[in-house]
Amino acid sequence: MDYPCFNEQIEQSIKNHWNLDALSDYKGETFQYKDIARLIEKLHIIFEHSNVKRGDKIALCGRNSAYWGTVFFATLTYGAVAVPILHEFKAEQIHNIVNHSEAKLLFVGDGVWKELDAKAMPGLEGIISISDYSLLVGRTEKVAYAREHLNQLFGERYPMNFRKHHISYYKGAPDELAVINYTSGTTSRSKGVMIPYRALWSNLEFAKKVLGPHMQAGDNVISMLPMAHMYGMSFEFIYEFCIGCHVFFLTKNPAPNILFAAFAELKPRIIIAVPLIIEKIIRKAVLPQIQGTTVKMLLKIPVVRQKIKDKICEQLKAAFGGNFYEIIIGGAAFNSEIETLLHDIGFNYTVGYGTTECAPIISYADWKSFEPGSCGKAAPRMEIKIDSNDPHRTVGEILARGANVMLGYYKNEEATREALRDGWYHTGDLGIMDEDGNLFIKGRSKNMLLGSSGQNIYPEEIEDLLNSMALVNESIVIQKGEKLYGLVHPDFDEAHNLGLQTSDLHSIMEQNRVELNHQLPNYSQIAGIKIFDKEFEKTPKKSIKRYLYTDVDV
Question: Measuring CA to CA, how many Å separate 168 from each of 12, 40, 163?
C-alpha cells in the first residue's frame, strides 16, 4: 500500500486552523495553531545550529504540556526521530535511554532536570528546558549562539513576517523511523520500539474514521494520559491536533477532583482513559448510590429499575462533562463488575486493545456495536489471529499484522526476531476470538501460571474477582511452589471511614479469600492473602509491574 505522508497532516492542520486555539496548559497559557507554527520554526533553527541531521534522535522528558507537544511535532517535521521518555522514570533509566537512543538533544521538564546528571549523558549536544526552551547545557558554541539569538535568526529568515505559505515540512517515507518509544515493561526491561511514519499515519487515519463523524474543529479534549506513551499521544494529542481541536493538558496527576473540575469546565468531546481512572470514579461516585438497602429493593421493581438506571447514567455522564461521544478505555484489564454495571445502565463506553508496538491500536469497536467483555474487532489495516487450533474456544497467543506494526526494537535484533515472526507481531497476550471477530483477552502469556497438574491459570481472571471484593483496591496473584497467594493493597480510606483497625482488615481479607475460593476450581484457589500498605508500582499504562512482586515473602 502507498501510505500518505504523516507530516503533511500536521502541516495542513496548521494551515487550515491558523486562527483557532490549538494547545493549552489547563489554567495556563493558550497557543493558537499559528503560534505552534512559529514555535516549530524556531525549534528547527535550534536543531540546525545543534548539528542535528535528518534521522538524528531528539529526546524529550517532562510532564504533558503545550511546549512538550510542540517539541514533538517540531522533531518529526524537521526529519529527526522523537524519543519520548516518561517523566516518572528514575534518573538512571532516563540516562540509559538517552544514551541507548544516541540522542543529540534532550528537552527536559524542570522537575526531572533536578534529578539528572548531564555528565552521565555525554553524547548530548545540548539540554534544553521544556518550560521555556532555555538552554540548560550547551556543549557547542553554535547551540548557545542559536538560543541566545533565536529571535534575531528567526527575523532574518522571515523578514516580511512568518505566514502560512512559509510552512513546508519534511515529508518522510512510510517505513522511515519517526519515533522510538521505550516500553516500561511489566515483565522485563524496557525496549526501544521503532515506530515508522506509516504506523503514525494509520493510527491517525483510524481515529479520523471512527471518531471523525462525532468530532469537529474547535472541540475540546483533555490530555490526561502520559504523551510519552502511544495511547495518550495518538488519541489525546496527534489526532485532535490534526483535525483542529483544542487540546488541554492537565499538567498535573489526574486526581479525581482535578479531573471533575476540568470535565465540568471544558466539556470534552471524547475521553480516553485507562481502567484505573474509570474504576476509581465508579467506586467513589456510583457504587455507594446503588448499594443501599432501599435502592437495592427498588431495583427489583421493573418499572422503577429502569428509571434508577437512567438517573445513574445521566449523573455519570454529567460527571464527565456531559458532552462526550464515548469514553474509550484501554491500556490494561478492565474490572468485569464495573464493566457489567456500565453496560447495564447503558453508558457510552468502549474498550480497545493495543500495544506500543502497534502505535498503539490493534482492535476497537464503537460503543453502540461493542460486545461487552471484548476489546472490539481488528482495526482498519490490521489483521488479528489467535495462535490456537480452535481460536473460538481454545486460548492462544494474539498475533497481529498490518500498517500499525513497528519496525522492530532499536539495537536489539534478538528481541525483534522473537516479536516479529513469519510476518506476524507476537503480542505476548492471550485471547480467543468469537465468530464475529470480537477479541477477548484472557491474559498475558508471560503471566500465565501452571497448576500442579498442568492446568493453565490466568492470574488476571482471579484478580478480577478479588478486586470486586470488600475493601480491595488492587491485587496481584503470585505462585509459590504449588500454591497461589493474593497480594492486596486495600482501600485504606474506606477502612478509615468505617473505623476499622489493621486486625479488622486482616479478618476481612481472610473472609474475601474464603469467598473467592468458593468461586474458583481447586487448582486455582488462593492459599493466603498478604496486605500491602502502598499501591503497587505501575507502568505508564497503569499496569502493575508484576515482576517486582513475584518473589515477595508470603
Answer: 10, 11, 11
